[in-house]
Design goal:
Strand content of chain A: 15-25%
Number of domains of chain B: 4
Number of helices of chain A: 6
Radius of gyration of chain A: 18 Å
Shape of chain B: globular
Strand content of chain B: 5-15%
Radius of gyration of chain B: 34 Å
Largest sheet of chain A: 6 strands, antiparallel
Structural class of chain B: alpha/beta
Oligomer: heterodimer
Structural class of chain A: alpha+beta
Number of strands of chain B: 25
Helix content of chain A: 25-40%
Helix content of chain B: 40-55%
CATH topology of chain A: NADH Oxidase
Number of strands of chain A: 8
Distance between the termini of chain B: 79 Å
Shape of chain A: globular
Chain lengths: 228, 793
């Protein structure tokens, strides 16, 4: 399977602040704490990414990997309705940041723990974005267009397909495993699918308002991250 | 200007050869068609024909099981190209592996290099006139291919990177940075191909022309492809691309051609445009410039450029924690140190792995690899061991500084070829066997020797930086002035940029930061370009800001003013006014999350004979409630709530120290955990922190906890209520199961639930007594649970 582990330059600070529950501007929260958390998370991260391009049949919603996987969920199938192939990807920031965050909580440094966790999320997204951009660029060179990145748990795509998705791309090769309850380990990991189609009509990104998770703390509009 | 050819893949497709077959093997299986394509390009006016070997390296051929055919394909490919016309020159084509090199991918630099070596050698043996490495999207792959090509033969090597819409490669390198590095590594022609059409590549050419005198080559694609059914169309017609020839020529480009989507018709149109060009004017020479690059950044050093700050702190000498970590194979401290120095303004970072008892080569390789994807500042590799240096400069995806070489012939013989091969610059120290050179003249003589030797190994003026040798003022009072005199003589005689390790001057003396800063200011005035200093030292930061302004590199004094107006962030003064009554001060300190202040105020309150009960109730708890309420209406944010909780905790701890006999009344005991199968920790940690600082005793069982384990704990110790948390839809059933088990065995128990996917309705459905939407709400609901009947939403 192709791998692309990504770099840690330019972690998105305002996204990190949003994950921490801070507005990107207008709070007098100490700047140094935010910077130091991003630095620490970056120092602790072990970025890994893996992906594979697979044929996709939009009629049956089937990804032709080994073994083939029939996608469940009306919304993901609609999202990929123009796709003829799809890139399945997984990235992880590794397990160390999460442990450090928990350690901070246990030693009473709650804000640091919280900020470190938020920085880890921002790093994970940053890694997914880089792999996404690479896949997009590769697709464009062959005249294909990419659909917006979509992860299990978005819309009505059940996270229970996490295991099967990871199996398709051998996510274990970059140290990702899936628990019996369909959670990714390390927790700061993301799996996703990017549809490739010959037509330029890219489906519009989903909005928070279309998600069933109405109590999600990250629910904003318009937004890219409408589910966790 | 000279003309290359156009696309091969597009033409193979036209002649029905695109499909499942390996395109490179067509040289062997369909030489007639390949020769026909080459001939069409030659007839259209190409002077250079590129062999059909884009994917003929062993790693790519392995996709078709043809990795043993590299030499056969290369022979056939050069023969086919040669057959196009007796007048053409043959460029042996080398394309990317499709894999990333470590640490971006899993391919090692050596594996990549030996892959390219085999194809380069095969093409050279087959009689190619030059090699062309093209469509490379990561600078590290180009470095591997170029070193391999140079090792395989003595043919001229053309290096073409491919850039994205933002003008950089997909991994962040811009054309100028690539050109600086590839020029230093000995590429013969530098350029770009494919990418996003001629417009963007014209811009790339202009950038490259500003930093290198090497001939430039541009071979754009015919715009971005569009799929039309099963056919790929390219938007730019021959007449769209031909006008760019004049613009490329104006930008100083020597060679042009076409990439994906270009055809003999495009090449013919380019030929006609080229033939109409006026006689070329020589390109204005680029003043030799010394620059360092990382994958994403370029730092210029020397006269005409702002002083460059090289951070000295990645050095385990005298730093126990860093040394022990490196010994144990961890580089977390090193990485933090790197990022902190960059944040403090370091332009480059010196990296020293001088730890006794370890494999320094391996440590250097690991740390350079990690820093290369973490830190945008170019590196200075600090070692005099050629083996350590080689490991580092080989795998660094940029142009680093080698720190350092002295006038030791054996050392120079090893270090200079390394610098030449991998494109590094070298810091030259005027040292030789037989004692320290005391006078500037002795140093000049030694430097002259070093420079002559360096030139004999092919290094250029811009590859060499000079150190004036900083000796300590405590042992020889004339030493610093001699260093400064050396600097002035360097500037007059050699025109090379200068570097020095600054802090040695103050060794053994008091007031070192001030002395270092004074010396540095004097050195700047004498021509110092890139001192190695401690970027975290505020005195040094100030000296740098002053030097930038005084040397004319700070327009409008903007950076200087910013540096002066910045309040020192390290020691924030308390915003708590001491004019207020102490309880109010305590509340302010908690609200502002000021830990030290909150703790200090406990002492004040006790001095005023306040009862601990009153301090807690009217000071600490009242403030925490206020913070919670402000959070509820969106006036305060979660990290600020957590800081308030930290301040509260620190005040509590202080109270306990001051009044050891203080009764520690707890509001009740909460047992918290994330339910079985759920590995999320954060939300539960936040709830635990806030409950604890609101007067509850918290038993935190952690994450992924089996219902039976919760029950067992509840039987062992008294629990007033349970706080159960689930963050994923897949673990909601576990929440229900756990609540049911607790209810069955402890009918009177109180259960609070929460987590991203839990709703008040679900809480009711599973028979929970309370639902908390967040940590602050959890405290409120806990208070209600403890004082009243079970709460329902």
């Amino acid at each position: 399977m192709p791998v692309f582990h990504g770099t840690l330059f330019q972690i998105n600070r305002s996204e990190m602040m949003r994950y921490a529950g801070l507005p990107p501007k207008g709070s007098d929260f100490p700047e140094a704490l935010i910077r130091e958390s991003i630095e620490e998370a970056s120092a602790l991260a072990s970025p890994r990414g893996i992906w594979q391009l697979l044929p996709y049949d939009a009629q049956t919603g089937t990804l032709f990997g080994d073994p083939p996987l029939c996608l469940e969920g009306r919304q993901i199938r609609k999202h990929l309705s123009h796709s003829v192939s799809a890139a399945v990807l997984a990235v992880t920031a590794g397990p160390d940041i999460e442990q450090a965050s928990t350690d901070y909580f246990h030693s009473g440094l709650y804000a640091k723990g919280l900020l470190l966790d938020a920085a880890a999320t921002a790093i994970t997204e940053h890694l997914a974005d880089q792999l996404d951009r690479y896949i997009q660029a590769s697709a464009r060179r062959t005249g294909r267009h990419t659909a917006w990145r979509y992860s299990p748990g978005y819309g009505d795509w059940p996270v229970t397909q996490q295991q099967a998705l990871c199996r398709l791309i051998h996510a274990e090769e970059i140290g990702i495993s899936v628990t019996d309850h369909s959670m990714l380990l390390p927790r700061k990991s993301v799996t996703a699918i990017i549809g490739l189609s010959p037509c330029s009509e890219a489906p519009k990104p989903q909005q928070c308002t279309q998600c069933h998770l109405i109590s999600c703390p990250f629910r904003i509009r318009p937004a890219r991250h409408f589910s966790r | 200007m000279h003309l290359f050819d156009g696309a091969m893949g597009t033409m193979l497709q036209k002649y029905g050869l695109a499909g499942s077959e390996c395109p490179d093997y067509c040289n062997v299986s369909h030489p007639d068609i390949v020769q026909r394509i080459h001939r069409e390009y030659a007839e259209a006016g190409s002077e250079y024909i590129t062999t059909n070997t884009f994917g003929a390296s062993p790693l790519k051929l392995a996709d078709y099981g043809l990795e043993d055919q590299v030499e056969a394909i290369a022979q056939a490919a050069v023969r086919n190209a040669r057959a196009a016309s007796p007048h053409i020159r043959v460029a042996g084509d080398i394309g990317p592996t499709g894999q990333f090199i470590r640490p971006l991918g899993d391919l090692s630099f050596d594996e990549a290099a030996s892959n390219f070596y085999r194809l380069a050698k095969a093409l050279a043996d087959a009689g190619a006139d030059c090699l062309i490495i093209e469509t490379i999207i990561d600078i590290q792959e180009m470095r591997a291919a170029l070193t391999a090509a140079k090792a395989a033969c003595s043919l001229p090597v053309i290096c073409q990177m491919s850039y994205s819409e933002d003008g950089r490669t997909i991994t962040g390198t811009d054309p100028a940075a690539a050109a600086i590095l590839l020029d230093a590594m000995g590429a013969d022609v530098i350029g770009a191909n494919c990418s996003v059409g001629p417009d963007k590549l014209l811009e790339a050419a202009k950038q490259m022309a500003r930093v290198t005198d090497k001939p430039l080559i541009i071979q754009p694609n015919a715009g971005m492809p569009v799929l039309d059914g099963n056919t790929t169309r390219f938007p730019l017609a021959p007449e769209d691309m031909a006008p760019y020839i004049a613009r490329f020529a104006e930008a100083g480009v020597t060679f042009a051609g076409g990439c994906c989507g270009t055809t003999p018709a495009h090449i013919r149109a380019m030929r006609e445009a080229m033939d109409r060009l006026p006689a070329p004017e020589p390109r204005p020479a680029v003043e030799p410039l010394t620059a360092f690059t990382s994958r994403t950044r370029t730092v210029f050093v020397g006269p005409g450029h702002a002083p460059v700050m090289i951070g000295e702190r990645i050095n385990p000498t005298g730093r126990k924690k860093m040394r022990e970590e490196i010994q144990s194979g961890s580089f977390v401290s090193v990485k933090k140190e790197a990022l902190a120095q960059v944040a403090a303004g370091a332009d480059m970072l010196d990296v020293n792995m001088g730890v006794p008892g370890i494999d320094q080569s391996a440590a250097m390789e690991k740390v350079v690899m990690e820093l290369s994807m973490l830190c945008p500042a170019p590196l200075s590799i600090d070692s005099t061991d050629p083996a350590v240096l080689e490991k580092a400069v080989k795998i660094y995806p940029g142009r680093p500084l080698i720190n350092s070489v002295s006038a030791d012939p054996a050392l120079m013989e090893k270090v200079f070829p390394l610098a030449r091969k991998y494109g590094a610059a070298v810091l030259c120290l005027p040292l030789a066997k037989g004692g320290l050179p005391k006078t500037a003249e002795e140093r000049i003589a030694l430097i002259r020797q070093i420079l002559e030797t360096a030139r004999s190994f092919g290094l250029r003026r811009q590859d060499l930086l000079l150190d004036p040798l900083v000796l300590t003022a405590a042992s020889d009072q004339k030493a610093p002035s001699e260093t400064l005199r050396t600097l002035r003589l360097y500037r007059e005689q050699f025109h090379c940029p200068t570097v020095m390790g600054t802090s040695n001057v103050s060794f053994g003396l008091p007031g070192r930061p001030q002395l270092n800063a004074a010396f540095l200011s004097m050195a700047f005035a004498c021509g110092m370009d890139a001192p190695i200093i401690n970027p975290l030292d505020e005195t040094m930061q100030r000296t740098f800001a002053e030097a930038r302004l005084l040397l004319g590199f700070d327009a409008g004094a903007r950076q200087y003013i910013a540096s002066v107006s910045e309040t020192p962030a390290a020691v924030p003064s308390s915003s708590v006014s001491s004019d207020k009554p102490v309880l109010e001060q305590i509340r302010d300190a908690i609200r502002n999350g000021e830990k030290e202040e909150a703790a200090r105020l406990m002492n004040d309150a006790i001095q005023e004979k306040m009862s601990p009960d009153r301090i807690i109730k009217e000071g600490l708890t009242a403030a925490m409630t206020e913070v919670g309420d402000a959070y509820g209406i969106g006036k305060v944010y979660l990290p600020q709530v957590m800081m308030a909780a930290e301040a509260m905790q620190s005040a509590f701890s202080e109270l306990k120290v001051l009044l050891p006999s203080m009764k520690n009344d707890s509001k009740g005991t909460a047992l918290l955990c994330t339910v079985q199968g759920d590995i999320h920790d954060l939300g539960k940690n936040i709830v635990a922190a806030l409950l604890e600082n609101s007067g509850y005793r918290v038993i935190d069982l952690g994450k992924d906890v089996a219902p039976e384990a919760i029950l067992a704990e509840a039987k062992r110790t008294h629990v007033d209520f349970f706080g159960l948390c689930s963050l994923m839809t897949t673990t909601l059933p576990e929440l229900k199961k756990t609540a049911a088990l607790l209810r069955e065995h402890i009918p009177a128990c109180r259960i609070m639930v929460g987590g991203a996917v839990v709703t008040p309705e679900y809480a009711r459905e599973i028979g929970a007594d309370a639902y908390a939407k967040d940590g602050v709400d959890a405290v409120r609901k806990a208070d209600q649970l403890m004082t009243a009947d079970p709460v329902s939403e």
